[in-house]
């Protein structure tokens, strides 16, 4: 859990492009955002609208409520000068009510769109790991095709606390009969499932791996193999893959340490291809003059079928409109990694020109 363009017709703009250079030295990947201004536009709008809200350091915001659990000693709900709520855990910002939709829409709708394009139908069976604040199931259940969602989160206190102090995150999703909530370990839950149990889409919304050594198993090769065991030919796996910092304008390097060092090398041992989705956030910084951190998700699938993301399939399946000024789909900011010899990203990786999607749905 880490919470945190412009076409006049159905044509996609070929402007949201990311390029990648990668040599064989571990951890040396450098991501370049060539369309920084366009991707930053909705973030700048948020910053303009809320510049009087006194964001700055989130630790300086007013504390509204606190709690603790067996897994986190410090869980806080803070509030900015405009009354916007901020969920913090262990002194780190988790969700800000102003821009959490950028994160959660990207977490869900690109993966669902990919499934729809592959399977020819909307996703029906969903596994959601983490996302205890409720925003994940909120977005998942907007798809009318969804029949059942199994959500496994280890810390119910986060759910209870969020429901009490930030109910807009879940927006009533916990009352939806399609949602089954299990308090427990997501890895253990999947291990106990019969192998023939497969989900259309699996979404893993866990805290960053750096937050605790206990979390390392949820980003391991073994865990991704476990996920693959519960996928069918058209299934899609979406993984929260951490923030990227130092992303400024075209040509400047984005540092995506968790993605580069902990995620892609392990995913590449299990899946032949993966798409990385990036989008800047408004509230993940203490001063506006600092570059925004970008959130990232990685989509992995078993099929190598080329998908036509220009089809606006999500519009046919969800209730309401996406809140992002520029709906976030794989075309908005993605790149496609293909594993090199040995199926190991560290041994050889390239970003195919065919995998550089540009633009967003109008």
TrEMBL record:
Homology family: Belongs to the spermidine/spermine synthase family.
Coiled-coil intervals, chain numbering: none
Signal peptide limits: 1-29
Domain of life: Eukaryota
PABS domain sequence ranges: 30-302
Keywords: Polyamine biosynthesis, Signal, Transferase
Identification of the protein by name: PABS domain-containing protein
Active site: 205
Gene3D superfamilies documented for this protein: Vaccinia Virus protein VP39
Classification via InterPro entries: PABS, SAM-dependent_MTases_sf, Spermi_synthase
């Amino acid at each position: 859990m880490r919470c945190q363009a412009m076409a006049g017709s159905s044509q996609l703009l070929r402007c949201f492009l990311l390029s990648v250079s990668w040599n064989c030295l571990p951890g040396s990947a450098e991501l370049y955002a060539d369309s920084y201004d366009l991707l930053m536009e909705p973030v700048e709008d948020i910053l303009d609208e809320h510049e009087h809200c006194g964001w700055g350091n989130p630790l300086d915001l007013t504390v509204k409520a606190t709690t603790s659990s067996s897994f986190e000693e410090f869980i806080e709900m803070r509030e900015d000068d405009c009354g916007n709520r901020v969920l913090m855990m262990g002194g780190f910002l988790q969700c800000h009510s102003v821009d959490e939709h950028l994160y959660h829409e990207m977490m869900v709708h690109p993966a669902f769109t990919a499934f729809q394009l592959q399977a020819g139908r909307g996703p029906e069976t969903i596994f959601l790991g983490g996302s205890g604040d409720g925003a994940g199931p909120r977005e998942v259940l907007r798809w009318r095709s969804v029949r059942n969602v199994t959500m496994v989160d280890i810390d119910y206190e986060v759910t209870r606390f969020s429901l009490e102090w930030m109910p807009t995150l879940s927006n009533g999703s916990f009352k939806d009969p399609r949602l089954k909530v299990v308090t427990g370990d997501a890895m253990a839950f999947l291990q106990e499932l019969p192998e023939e149990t497969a989900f259309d889409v699996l979404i893993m919304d866990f805290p960053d791996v750096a937050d605790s050594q206990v979390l390392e198993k949820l980003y391991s090769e073994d865990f991704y193999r476990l996920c693959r065991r519960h996928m069918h030919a058209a299934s899609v796996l979406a993984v929260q893959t951490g923030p990227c910092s130092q992303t400024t304008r075209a040509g400047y390097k984005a540092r995506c340490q968790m993605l580069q060092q902990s995620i892609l090398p392990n995913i590449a041992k299990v899946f032949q291809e993966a798409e990385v989705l990036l989008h800047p956030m408004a509230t993940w910084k203490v001063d506006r003059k600092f570059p925004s951190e970008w959130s990232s998700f990685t989509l992995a699938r078993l099929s190598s079928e080329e998908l036509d993301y220009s089809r606006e399939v999500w519009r046919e399946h969800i209730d309401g409109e996406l809140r992002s000024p520029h709906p976030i789909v794989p075309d908005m900011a993605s790149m496609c990694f293909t594993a090199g010899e040995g199926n190991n990203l560290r041994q050889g990786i390239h970003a195919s020109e065919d995998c550089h999607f540009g633009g967003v749905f109008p």
